Every structure is written in structure tokens, then in C-alpha cells.
TrEMBL record:
The keyword Hydrolase applies. Homodimer. GO terms for molecular function: methenyltetrahydrofolate cyclohydrolase activity; methylenetetrahydrofolate dehydrogenase (NADP+) activity. The keyword Electron transport does not apply. This is Bifunctional protein FolD 4. Residues 74-189 form the Tetrahydrofolate dehydrogenase/cyclohydrolase catalytic domain. Residues 210-357 form the Tetrahydrofolate dehydrogenase/cyclohydrolase NAD(P)-binding domain. Coiled coil: none annotated.
């Protein structure tokens, strides 16, 4: 599909749409009058919620019947900052003790604007914690062999402890072939089939867990949200987010259901969930009426919606209709400022872990 249309979930009858060109990662703005009408959702007053907070980052979330129903915001940006601070200390301890600086290599192919932005952000994040970053940029029309050559160079480079091939790759390249070429010891994205296979198997440990799902679970842990024994629903089954998120939740002893594009009546399934992780790419798809009162919502979706008042002409929204969901859920991640910053923090964490493992540094 060359382009996708994104809708806005506001109570206004005019919804603004933005076309995202999947091929080159640019946004085309368009406006349309939409007949979209908000469904009435579970009323905020019907929602059972109260929040006990022991520290600003580790509140315990529990239920009572009196509170005004406004979900606790799970602040991924703040947690990610805390994690970066922890990593900074470890990186300098490692440098002082054994003289090794962790290194992350990023391979960017093509000129998608969104990919370039992500790669820039990763580079900045590396600098902020003292991780050395390496970058190879290849043109859109470069060959698969050239990418494989870069991967192989980084596999052999002792200064590089993590390798990330920015996705998506141009369509003429075989993504599987390229991801398989990344040394499993440096696969900080956790996309190598050996790492994913181990993640899926009982009693096996992957060397790396994919960053976005790992960030989702880390948020649940840091907010003391129990996973064990809970009903979890993952919306989306992609190799990079939905599928590994479901595997991770299962490893944490949740009972997991997966919703995808062929699922019938998804809202009936989500309404049963104590925890929802959504990674679809459809703005505001999950309405308040899809959510069980008191559920915890992790919104992975990052979707651009036209907003003339925003500096870039658009703003980012998640898969969850936030304004409805926060009246029903007990806790929710915002977009932006939720899972996104955690993805980058987990990438830094995986890179540090890799360097420690390679140099046998505890
Ligand atoms: N915050 C972060 O760090 C990250 C955010 N993202 C964002 O997360 C979202 C998902 O990304 P990604 O997993 O790569 O996307 P993909 O397009 O690879 O996968 C989307 C998944 O959603 C399912 N899906 C699509 N439409 C529907 C629908 N109407 N109902 C139910 N399921 C549906 C698809 O089902 P099927 O399998 O049947 O096609 C598929 O499994 C995007 O918005 C992306 O930008 C992605 C990576 C990191
Ligand atoms: N090999 C590979 N690994 C990835 O992990 C990978 C990838 N390819 N391709 C693209 C997706 C997407 N992704 C994001 C990371 C951070 C934010 C992020 O930090 N978002 C900010 C907002 C950023 C903004 O304002 O533009 C936030 O949500 O607050 C978003 C998306 C990683 N991905």
C-alpha cells in the first residue's frame, strides 16, 4: 500500500486526515468532513480507580469505587530518562574499570524522513549516555550486497557491540536475509530468528529482547502493575512489536489473546482484558467502549494526524482514543511520551548488556 489515511478521534464532526506515504515516509496533508460520531463510552463515574503513590515513578494502582475516573498517566518519557541515567553510570564504570566504551552501529538505507528522524534520535540518545555511535547511510537504490557488506563489517568490528538495521528496508531488499546476517551476539534489536525462537520457548533465554515490547513490560514493572495471572490482549502481531509483546506477556504468566486484522468483534475480546498492548498503526481505533473499567493500557501506535496549530503541521496520536480511554482505564501511556522513548532506552540498555557480555564485565 503506497499511502494510508489517518483519522482523528475528536468529538468534532470535522476530522482531519493525513496521508502517510509508506514508501518514502513523508506526510501529505488533506482535510475531509467526516460523519464520525463518538460512541458513548463507559462513564468516568462508573470506573473504579484509585492511586497510591510511593514515589513519582512507582505508584501502586488499585481499585476503589469513589474516585473520579481519570487514568494514571504512565510517563514513559520520565522512566526512559531514569533508565538513561542508570545506563550513564554503568557506561562510565565500565570505561573506568576496563577501558571499554559500548558502541552501537546503525544502518540506514534510503531517504525516508521518519527513519532519518529516528536514527538521529538514537544517535543523540547514545551521546547522552556515553555510548559510541557508528552510522552507515546507503542510498535507496543500493544493493542488498552493500547492506550485507556493512553488516558484516560491523559484525567483525570489536568497537561495535550492537547493530541495528533501520526498518523498513527498500522493497527490493530481502529483509529476512539482512536481519539473519546480524551476529546474534550483536542483535540489540532482538530480531534475529534465533533470539525470537528462544523468546518463544520455555526454558530458553534470548540474548536480546526486542526493544519496544521490552519497553512496554518495563513500564508495567516500574509502575508495579501485576502481570501474572492477568488477562492480556495484544492488538497487532508484527514481528517487531505485537508478536514479541505477546510472547513476553506470556513469559510473565499472563493469559494472552492476540487480535489482528482478521479478528472478528475485537472489542468483545479487549473488553475482557486487564492489560491491553496495542500496536496497530490505526489512529484512535480503540474506543472507550472497548475497555474494561480499570484496565491498564499500553499504546504503542504512533500515527500522524493533521494539526495546523502544530509546528510540523501534524501531531502524533496512538491507536487508543486517549480522551475516551483515560476515563475508563486505571493507567495509560500517552503518545507521544509513552512507549516511544522507552524503545530508545531499551536499545541503549541492550547495547550496554551486549558490551558487558562480550567483555565479561559484571
Ligand atoms: N512506540 C514505538 O517505539 C514504536 C511504535 N510503532 C508503531 O506501532 C504501530 C504498529 O507498528 P508495526 O507493528 O510495525 O505495524 P505493522 O503494520 O507491521 O503491523 C500492524 C499489525 O496490526 C494489525 N492490524 C492492522 N489493522 C488492524 C485492525 N483494523 N484491527 C486489528 N488489527 C489490525 C495487523 O494485522 P495483520 O497481521 O492481520 O496484518 C498487524 O498485525 C505503528 O503505529 C508504528 O508506528 C512501531 C514500532 C515502535
Ligand atoms: N530496526 C528497527 N528498530 C526499531 O526499533 C524501529 C525501526 N527499525 N523502525 C521504526 C520503528 C519505530 N520506532 C520508534 C522509536 C522511537 C520513537 C519515539 O521516540 N517516539 C517519540 C516521538 C518522536 C516524535 O516526536 O517524532 C514518542 O513517542 O514520544 C518512535 C518510534 C522504532 N522502530
Amino acid at each position: 500500500m503506497a499511502s494510508m489515511m489517518f483519522t482523528d478521534c475528536s468529538s468534532s464532526t470535522t476530522s482531519r486526515l493525513i496521508h502517510f506515504n509508506r514508501r518514502n515516509g513523508t506526510f501529505l496533508l488533506r482535510r475531509r468532513v467526516d460523519q464520525l460520531r463518538l460512541q458513548t463510552t463507559a462513564s468516568g463515574r462508573g470506573c473504579n480507580l484509585s492511586i497510591r503513590s510511593s514515589s513519582s515513578l512507582t505508584p501502586a494502582i488499585s481499585a476503589d469505587t469513589k474516585s473520579e475516573a481519570t487514568a494514571k498517566v504512565i510517563d514513559g518519557k520520565a522512566v526512559a530518562k531514569k533508565i538513561r541515567d542508570e545506563i550513564t553510570i554503568e557506561v562510565s564504570r565500565m570505561k573506568e574499570s576496563i577501558g571499554v566504551v559500548p558502541g552501537l552501529a546503525v544502518i540506514l538505507v534510503g531517504d525516508r524522513k521518519d527513519s532519518a528522524t529516528y536514527v538521529r534520535n538514537k544517535k543523540k540518545a547514545c551521546e547522552s549516555v556515553g555510548i559510541k555511535s557508528f552510522e552507515v547511510r546507503l542510498s535507496e537504490d543500493s544493493s542488498e550486497e552493500e547492506v550485507l557488506k556493512s553488516v558484516s563489517g560491523f559484525n567483525d568490528d570489536p568497537c561495535v557491540h550492537g547493530i541495528l538495521v533501520q526498518l523498513p528496508l527498500p522493497s527490493h531488499m530481502d529483509e529476512q536475509n539482512i536481519l539473519n546476517a546480524v551476529s546474534i551476539e550483536k542483535d540489540v534489536d532482538g530480531f534475529h530468528p534465533l533470539n525470537i525462537g528462544r523468546l518463544a520457548m520455555r526454558g530458553r533465554e534470548p540474548l536480546f529482547v526486542p526493544c519496544t515490547p521490552k519497553g512496554c513490560i518495563e513500564l508495567l514493572h516500574r509502575y508495579n502493575i501485576e502481570i501474572k495471572g492477568k488477562r492480556a490482549v495484544v492488538i497487532g502481531r508484527s514481528n517487531i512489536v505485537g508478536m514479541p509483546a505477546a510472547l513476553l506477556l506470556q513469559r510473565e504468566d499472563a493469559t494472552v489473546s492476540i487480535i489482528h486484522s482478521r479478528t472478528k468483534n475485537p472489542e468483545e475480546i479487549t473488553r475482557e482484558a486487564d492489560i491491553i498492548i496495542s500496536a496497530v498503526g490505526v489512529p484512535n481505533m480503540v474506543r472507550g467502549s472497548w475497555i474494561k473499567p480499570g484496565a491498564v493500557i499500553i499504546d504503542v501506535g504512533i500515527n500522524p494526524v493533521e494539526d495546523a496549530s502544530a509546528p510540523r503541521g501534524y501531531r502524533l496520536v496512538g491507536d487508543i482514543c486517549y480522551e475516551e480511554a483515560c476515563k475508563v482505564a486505571s493507567a495509560i501511556t500517552p503518545v507521544p511520551g509513552g512507549v516511544g522513548p522507552m524503545t530508545i532506552a531499551m536499545l541503549l540498555s541492550n547495547t550496554l548488556t551486549s558490551a558487558k557480555r562480550i567483555h565479561n564485565f559484571q
